[in-house]
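S.,

As promised, the magnesium ion run. Input:
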Amino acid sequence: RAKAQGKGSYQVFDTQMRDQIVAASRLERDLRHALEREQLEVYYQPIVSLVTQETIGFEALVRWNHPQRGIVSAAEFVPIAEETGLSILMDWWVLKEACTQMKRWQQQYPERSNLTISVNLSGKQIIQPNLVEYISQILADTDLNPQCLTLEITETAIIEKPELAINTLGKLKELGIRLSLDDFGTGYSSLSYLQRFPVNSLKIDRSFVNRMDVDSDSLEIVRAMILLGKTLGMTVVAEGIETPAQLNLLQQMDSNHGQGYYFAKPLPESESTNWLKLK
Ligand code: C2E
Ligand code: MG
Ligand code: MG
Ligand code: MG
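Predicted complex:
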């Protein structure tokens, strides 16, 4: 009897796996079409100085404007895009779009010419042989000051080919581009790597920020991460600030910048422009 049950549960497992695979390949096919049919859109989430509360820039976050499902968030399809290699095309598109938009904002609001745009790069992207040339080309085409572009990378993306990645990051930095380590604390964090990555800023993952006002361990971890980043001469950005309590704690601990629903959700282009008029 136990055997029969065991077999049954394998069947359930197989069915679930098959459903997942079918769903994933459907998503892949749809995503390919989305790229071709221009169903992707870039949203912009304000990044705010925790000292002055001024908006210092935006993070570009891709969205899929799906004909049936409406706006689909990056968390739902970026992992598939990365697995299938579609993220390479997608990231180039997002980068070009985001740099173009930032240039437009700087022209529209000349007094805000220090605004920066942060763009996420997938692990696949970092090991592209023509990455540096391609990014220089986009900067030239859009006429954006390289100092106004921040590329966000994760430790997990670097860890597969650390030597190659560190080399590439060094070249990007020479161009004047700023680099930021995203989701800090969740990846394969190694302090010796942290020292070798030529990054300008650290983004503390929102899973820590989220809990810091209710969980003292998270609070102490955030405190230690801020101290570590600042000691290494980096700018610290706290992700996922949702409450005034979290904001107060981060300000007390001297985090430089912050981002989160407390300030604003990622906004479509027109709403981001309105946001800039006010902040
Ligand atoms: P990420 O780069 O760490 O981006 C932050 C994510 O946290 C975004 O989710 C953002 O909407 C969400 N977020 C920001 N503030 C809050 C908050 O206060 N509360 C909560 N609950 N969430 C908040 P999103 O846009 O779904 O993106 C998920 C991930 O997908 C990103 O994480 C990034 O790793 C990836 N991603 C997004 N756009 C791109 C892209 O253009 N290219 C690549 N390669 N990856 C991207
Ligand atoms: Mg990011
Ligand atoms: Mg993050
Ligand atoms: Mg992430």
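The mean pLDDT is 91. Residues 191 and 228 are 10 Å apart (CA to CA).

- D.
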